Amino acid sequence: MSIETDDFRTLREGLAMLAERPGPASSLDVPAARASGERALRIRRATKAGVGVAAVAVVMAGALAAALLPPATHGIVTTPGSPATSFPLTSVPLTEHGDPVSIRVVLGDVPSGYAMTEDEGSGDTDFVQYQGYSAGVGTNTISLRVTTQGDSSLGEGAR
Amino acid sequence: MTDEDPGQSVADGYTEYVVAKSAWLRKIAFLLCQDWHRADDLVQTSITKLYINWRRARDSENLDGYVRAIVVNTFLSEQRSPWWRRVTLFQDRDGSENPAGGAAGVGAGAGRDLDLGLDLGDALAAIPPRQRAAVVLRFYCDLSVEETAAALHCSAGTVKSQTARGPAALRRRLAPRRAAR
Asked: Which residue of B has its CA nearest to A42?
């Protein structure tokens, strides 16, 4: 036999001869292969089930965490005659305070007998103005203007 | 196997198939690794993988090709992790165990080889594993270039080059031995 040339037929014969050589008795164990395979299948099934449960748990934990987060506030607190103070911004639902770029004023000190209402007639976007009215006709008014920069000014006049 | 066997539905026909094909699988494994004991380990691992994927294999168009691909790929993946070189005792041609092991031990018995069949085995052991697998699939299993490429997960061009270089390498390794006789 020779494979000195490109004789693929000879190579085929050589390989067949090599494969047919008697070897030791086979030590293959089919039941052991089945048992190992069955064990691997069980592990695979358990892993798949575990991944599914873990995914559901992660989603539920995320939803629970979002629901339990404390509602945060944002905006500007201004009292008459004092500069604006900003709150630290945290996660606040927009629905609670409306547009986040709008001016929001919390009035802390209103003189006794005055009621403050937002003046909606200005139409400007860089400040908001409040009017304070005392009870009764012909009495004084107080106006409070707060700009987007946080400046505020008080005005007084007759009604 | 009994009716109460929980693996019955999974393993339907598995045992019969493996028993019928084990000799054929051993021969392929032996040509790949030139060691009967390692060939048995290779086939044992392969039939375990076959059991895990038995449904898919049974439904495939070419069950024999599917199993042959498992054997070849198991062999090639073992080449990438040389653990077997450390734990497997290599048996020489005369039956004695040589702890040097694996492919390195194949060449040690060359002086005792008296026929070209054994020389071919040693020459096969000396060529790279993927080239060896391509040669075995093309020239022992009689697969086409495309079928070999599918089994080895490579292109037809790669198979062509491997099956051109493989026989050339075998010729180079066999020539000095023949000249020495």
From this structure: B52
Contact B138, B163 (CB under 8 A): yes
CA pair distance A5, A54, nearest whole angstrom: 62
Query: Tokens 């006789």 — which residue?
Result: B181
Structural contact between residues A31 and B46, judged by C-beta atoms closer than 8 angstroms:
no
Between CA B142 and CA B74 the distance in angstroms is: 20
pLDDT in tens, A51-96: 888 888 888 888 888 888 766 555 555 556 555 555 555 554 555 5
Site from B44, B58, B174 to mutate, A interface, most A CB atoms within 10 angstroms: B44
- Provide the chain B residues 41-70 that lie in CB contact (below 8 A) with chain A: 43-44, 47-52, 54
Residues facing A143 on adjacent strands: A131, A155
Contacts of B130 (CB under 8 A, 6+ apart): B76, B152, B162
